[in-house]
Amino acid sequence: MEEKKVRRIGVFTSGGDAPGMNAAIRAVTRTALHMGIECIGIRRGYHGLINCDVVPLDLGSVSGLSRQGGTMLYSARSKEFMTPEGREKALNTCKLLGIDGLVGIGGDGTFRGLLELSKLGISVVGIPGTIDNDISCSSYTIGFDTACNTALDSIDKLRDTMQSHERCSVVEVMGRHAGHLALYVGVACGATAVIVPERPFDAEQDILEPIRRARLNGRTHFMVIVAEGVEGGAYAVADQIRAATALDTRVTVLGHVQRGGSPSSRDRVTATYMGYEAVKLLAEGESGRVICLQNDQYVDMDINEALSMKKELDMQTYTVMRIMTGVDHAPDTVRPSRSDA
Ligand code: ATP
Questions:
Q1: Which atom of ligand 1 is nearest to the CA of 131?
Q2: Of 17, 53, 100, 132, which residue is the catalytic one?
Q3: Cα 117 to Cα 192: distance, rounded to the nearest angstrom
Q4: Could you confirm whether 132 is annotated as catalytic?
Q5: Considering the entire predicted model, what is its pTM?
Q6: What's the gap in Å between 49 CA and the centre of ligand 1?
Q7: pLDDT tens string 63-105
Q8: How many of the other CB atoms lie within 10 Å of CB of 298?
């Protein structure tokens, strides 16, 4: 039997936005056009698919898009799509528009939605796009590098003023369930301490003692990085520091600024490769796949399998962070702590 030719595909962004999503939309569109496939942009994720909120994409409409933050297709979360009735409406939009395949750019939730659509007979491919880098099947997700750089830029600026006033800064970075961003940013900025939701922490050992050691080494300002998902967040950590040290301790919650900005070269290039691979798969008649980066190679994986995996904290970076902050120094390799003095 002759393989059915893919003639028209849809692309959408869903869940939290991430820098580089636009570059992925551009790559999907350009690859599709190169292959003689029409490309339709679906606005506002699954909400737009339900409501037929679409825009045709051509070379002109995605021109210059790589360097733009956010997503030109908007992003949304849709409760209606979680219901069979909602998904039926989404299916009807695909039928009405003659969409043979869909590329969804987002996180785990977006992939779960794609899986449901594939059960209804639509060919689907997912691209990991989230600043949290918390998608198990891929070592990297679009947006992570830019978010790290944005956070780092703010922290470097904060450090200047903290240094002038000899304060302790507690910075909360995004990551409700995952500490990847906190960990990378913490290593990059030379933090005094880094606290992530995946690991229990002991305030005395993991925060206060590193501050004391830094003080004994001559430092008069301190930078503590806390992931959003740590219980109580940055405010609870700051209270503990204040109570134990009387340091002038200030909290900064970086918030949504971390989602914005022009994507880094890494995010633009990753998004471009992933967009290309996604369309190639659809054109080859594949469905139910997620594009992943594994060992520096772009590969694809079954969505079910991808969703069943759990991403662990990067233990190499965690170990390096603990050595850099001094938490795991052998007792006789550090200067005496205040209690020893
Ligand atoms: P982020 O990591 O930024 O939160 P995400 O893709 O995980 O991104 P979600 O809000 O979890 O974001 O999911 C996006 C949308 O995917 C949801 O609003 C919903 O419409 C759809 N979705 C999520 N889970 C399911 C599911 N189990 N079945 C069908 N659709 C789902």
A1: 3
A2: 132
A3: 47
A4: yes
A5: 0.94
A6: 14
A7: 999 999 999 999 999 999 999 999 999 999 999 999 999 999 9
A8: 16
